[in-house]
Amino acid sequence: MVRITEFLLLFFIFSFKQGSSTTEPADVSALKSLSDKWKNAPPSWGRSGDPCDKPWEGVLNCSNSRVTTLKLFNMGLQGTLGPEIGNLSQLEILDLSYNQNLEGPLPSSIGMLTNLEILRLIGCKFSGGIPQELGNLLQLTVLALNSNQLNGTIPASLGQLSNLNYLDLADNQLTGTLPTSTNDSSGLDMLLKAEHFHLNRNQLSGRIPSKLFNPNMILEHLLLDSNKLSEEIPETIGLVKTLTIIRLDNNFLNGSVPSNISNLTDLCVLNLANNTLAGPMPNLTELQGLNYLDLSNNSFDPSAVPEWLSNLHNLTTLIIEFGQLHGEVPQFLFSSQWLQEVRLKNNSFNGTLDISSITSSELRILNFQNNDINSITLSSNYNEKLELAGNPVCNNTQLQRTEYCQNLRSDSQSISSNNITCLQPYGGLVISRAPYNGYIEQILPQLEKGFEDFLRTKPMIINFSIWNFSFDINSYLRVELRFCHSNSKSFTREDIIELLDFNTQDLHLPDAIGPSYFSPFQYAFKNRVIRGLTIGIAVGSAVAVLIIAGLAIYALRQRRQARRAFSLRNPFAYWGSFGEDAGDAPQLRGARSFSLDELKKCTNDFSRANEIGSGGYGKVYRGTLPNGQIVAIKRSEKGSMQGGLEFKTEIELLSRVHHLNLVELVGFCYEKGELLLVYEYISNGTLRDSLSGRNQIQLDWKRRLKIALDSARGLVYLHNHANPPIIHRDVKSSNILLDDNLTAKVADFGLSTLVMNSEEGQFSIHVKGTPGYVDPEYVMTQQLTAKSDVYSLGVVMLEMITSEPALHKGKYIVSRVKMAIDKNDEEWYGLKDMIDSTLLKSGSLDGLRRFVELALSCLEESSELRLTMDNVVKEIEILLTDYESNKSTSALPFAIELGSMKDAYDETELSKQVSSQDIYRFTGRHGI
Fold first, then answer.
1. CATH superfamily name and code, 686-893
2. What are the structural domain ranges in the chain?
3. Helices and strands (H and E) in the chain: how many
4. Domains 26-201 and 412-520 belong to one CATH topology
5. Residue in 607, 591, 709, 687 with CA at minimum distance from that of residue 647
6. pLDDT tens across 855-911, in order?
7. What is the largest CA-CA distance in the chain?
8. What is the pTM of this model?
9. Cβ–Cβ under 8 Å, residues 506 and 120
C-alpha cells in the first residue's frame, strides 16, 4: 500500500511538472539563448520558464505551445541577433525595431521562419548583407529593414516573395543595381502584389531596369530618391498605372523624361529634382490628380513657364528651382484653387510679378528669390509669405526692409495641440517621405485624427500632442509626437509593446501623409526592484558607507592632483570632466551650454537617421531643439584630429563673431568626455559637395561669383572687424557651407588664431591646415598672416572654375592651372579642358579671365604680392556688377505696384490704394 501511495505521489509530481509548462521547450531554449546575447533584456524573461503561460514581455501570442508573435521594439536591447532565432519556427510576426544598439549581421537562419508574415527590424545597427535566405519566407507580406547599416546588393531571391505587399530597405548602405528576373534567378519585377518599393537613401547605382515595371503590378509608392542611379528613366514606368507617388530625385538620371509618364493618371506626387535630366520639360497635362510636382535643378531646355501647368487643377505644391525658366511669370500659374506653395527661386524671371489674380485661399508661400524681377503687383487677397530676396525689385528702398526681401523663413515650427504634460512622456517622430501637401497646417489635423482613432481602440486612456514639425533636406516631413499615460507617471514595457505599437500601416493614416513610419525616441524604463533586493542593497550600502568614509580624504587629495594634471593637457580642465560649471570654463558671448542629455534627446540619441556628415573630428547630426530650431551638432570622436584646445578655440571664436557669411554658433556641450558643438543648420551642405555633384546642386557662373563674394566677405569680417582680428587657417571648399538661398557661410574655426601682440599681424606658429590649401610661404617660414587665408581662398576660386579638388592623386590644382594658362586664348584663357562641364552648359562666362587672374593674384608665393581680403571683395563685387550689367542691358526701373498705383514712392498715393493693414505692414512695421 505504501509503495502504491509513493508511486501515485511521484506520478502526481511528474505530471504537475509536465503540465506546468505550456511552451514548447525548443522555443524556451531559443528565447533564452537570444537573451544571453542581449543586454537590457526585459526583466520578466528571468522570472519564469514559461513565456506562454506566464507571459514574457514581447511574447504576445502563442498557439499550440509555440511562440507566434515576438515584439520587442524600442526596448533598449544591446547585442546581436543570434542564429537561435531560426528555432522559433512558428513565428508569424517578428519586430525588434528601434533597438539602436542591436548590431552585427542578420543571421541566415531567419530564412528558416517559413511561417513568418511580418518582419520588422527598423532603426537598429544591423550591418553586413541582406541574407539571400530571406527569399524562403514565402508567407511574408511585410519586409521592413530600413534605417540600419546594411550593405552589399539587394538579393535577387527577394523576388520569390510572391505575397509581399510592403518592401522597405531605405536608409541603408546598399549598393549595386536593382535586381530583375532572368532565366536563372528571380527579381523585384516578380513582386506583383507589392504596393510599396521603398529603396531610397542608399547607394544603388546603374540604370533603372526597364524590366522592373510591368502592367500586372499594383505598385503605388516608388521611392528611389537619394541613390546613385544613372542613365534614362525607362519608358516602362508608364505601364504601372496604379502608381500614386514617384520619387526619383537626388540621383544622376539623364536623358529626357519619357512621354508616357502622362499615362499615370492616379499620380499624386512626382519628384524628379536634382538629376541631370535634359530635353524639354515633360508635358504633364494628363496628370489631373497631381498634387505635388518638383522638377528642380535639372538640365531641361531653357523655356518660359509651360502652359500645361494651367491644366493641373489639383496642384497644391509646385517647385521648379534652378529650372532655367525665363520671361514674365504668367497669370495662369496661380489659377489652381488648391494651390498652397510655389517655389520658383533661382530662375531668370524678369519684368513684373503680378499676383493680383491669385484665387486659392490656401496659398501660403510664394518664393521667387534670385530672379531678375524688377517690379511687383500685389493682391489684396494674398497676405501670406512672399520671398523676393535676390531680385532687382529689392533694391527699392521701400522694399529693402520688408519681409519680402529678407530671408526670414524657418523650416521648423514648435507647436502643441493639447499642451499635455507628464513626467515621462513616450515620444517619437512620424517621418513622411512624400507628403502631398505643402501647407502643413492641413496635414497635422489629419495626422492627429489618425492617432486619435487608433488610440480609441485601446483599453487605456492615452493623451498625446503634436509638438513640432519640420521638413528636412530630403523634403521628408518630420512631426514630433508625445504621449502621456492618463493614470500613471510613466509607461511600462507592457504598455509600450501592447498599446503603443504605432506601425503606420496599422494606423491607416490619410493619403495626405504619404508613406510614413513612426520612429520612437529611446525610453527610460523604471525597473521594479524586488523587496529582498532592496533590503540587501540597504545593508550593503551601510557597509559601503564605512569604506567610503575611510577613503574620502584620500579621494579628495587625488582629485585635486587629477585636476592639476588634467588642466595641463586640456583647456577645460576639471570644468566639464567633473561635471562642474565653474573654474576654467571659458567666458562666451551668446553661446548656450547644453547638457549631453539635451543633445541626445534632440538627435534621437545620435541616431544614424539624423547623421548628415562626418570628418576627421567625428560626425555631424541634425537635431531639433525644444523651441523648434533645427541645428547641426558636431560630435567629436575618440581619435579625432580636434582636441580640447581646438574645441575651446572654436567656441571662443564663434561666440564673438556674428556675420551673415559666418556660421553661427548656437551652443556647445563639454560633459563626460564628450566634445560637441551646436551650430545653426545649413541646409545645402558644403561647396565641395556641390562642386563634386554629391548633392546634385548645379551652380551656374553667377552663383559661383556670389559664393566667392560671400566667402571673401566673411573672411574680411574676421580679418578687419573681429576684436581681436582672427585668421581662419583652414579655408577650403568643405568649410564653406551653402544655406537655403545658396548664400555662402564660412565654417569650422577649430584651427583659427587670434591676431594679438603683433602690430603687423605676423607671428610664428606651428603649421596646421589642409594639404592643397596651405600657404607655401607659411610652411617655409612658419610666419602666419591674414594673407595665408587669401592664398587658401585663391585655391577655392580655382576649384569653383574647374570643380576639381585642391589635391587629387598627388597633383595640385594650382600648378595644373598655371601650366594650362594660355594668355593668347581670349575666350577660355587656355582652361577650356579644365572648366567644369556644368559651367560650359550654363551659358555665358563673362569675366572668366578676370576671375582667374584674381585667383592667381591671391596665389602669389610671396604674401607681399598678394591682395588683401578687402581688395579681393572689391574686385569680385566689380566683376559681379559687370556680369549682371552685361546680362541685362535694358533693366526696367524698380517699382512696386499696388493695383493701379502710379508712384511707388508716394506714401500718400500708397494709402489710397491699400488697406490700413497693408499700410501698417509697409510703414509702421518696417519703418518706411
1. Transferase(Phosphotransferase) domain 1 (1.10.510.10)
2. 26-201, 412-520, 531-569, 571-681, 686-893, 900-924
3. 19, 49
4. no
5. 591
6. 999 999 888 899 999 999 999 999 988 887 776 433 333 333 333 333 333 333 323
7. 123
8. 0.65
9. no
| DSSP three-state, residue 745 | strand
Range in 1-5, 224-228, 541-545 the model is least confident about: 1-5
Residue type at 9 in one-letter notation: L
Give the separation between CA 847 and CA 827, rounded to whole angstroms: 10
Characterize the bridge pairing of strands 292-294 and 78-80.
unpaired
CATH class of 26-201: alpha beta
Identity of the residue numbered 902: K
Nearest to 229 by CA among 212, 241, 215: 212
Q: What is the pLDDT of residues 145-164, one digit of tens each?
A: 999 999 999 999 999 999 99
| Cα–Cα separations (whole angstroms), residue 901 to 227, 598, 671, 895, 911 | 51, 53, 61, 10, 10
Predicted confidence (pLDDT) per residue in 787-825, tens digit: 999 999 999 999 999 999 998 777 889 998 998 888 888
Name the residue with cell 555631424: 620
Question: Is 571-681 in CATH node 3.30.200.20?
Answer: yes
**Catalytic residue positions?**
730
Does the domain at 412-520 match CATH 3.30.70? Answer given as: yes
| Contact status, residue 764 vs residue 783, Cβ threshold 8 Å | yes
Type of residue at 619: K
pLDDT score, position 407: 64
How far apart CA 197 and CA 179 sit, in angstroms, is: 13
**What's phi and psi for 661, nearest 5 deg?**
-105, 20
Average pLDDT on 606-619 reads: 79
pLDDT of residue 559: 58
Contact 396, 904 (CB under 8 A): yes
Contacts of 203 (CB under 8 A, 6+ apart): 173, 174, 175, 227, 228
State the average pLDDT for the chain: 80
Burial 399-426 (b: 16+ CB within 10 A, else e): beebbbbeeeeebbebeeeeebebeebb
Position 468 scores a pLDDT of: 73
Q: For 403-409, which contacts have Cβ atoms below 8 Å and span 24 or more sequence positions?
A: 403/926, 407/369, 407/739, 407/740, 407/741, 407/743, 409/385, 409/740
DSSP code per residue over 294-318: E--SSEEPPBSPPGGGGG-TT--EE
Q: Please classify residue 364 by burial: count the beta carbons closer than 10 Å to its beta carbon, then call 0-12 exposed, 13-18 middle and 19+ buried.
A: middle
Grid coordinates standing for 292?
A: 505635388
Q: Which tens digits make up the pLDDT trace of 524-583?
A: 776 544 444 444 555 556 556 666 665 666 556 665 555 544 444 444 444 444 333 333
Scanning the structure block, which residue is given the C-alpha cell 499615370?
Answer: 264
Hey, what's the cell of 324?
532655367
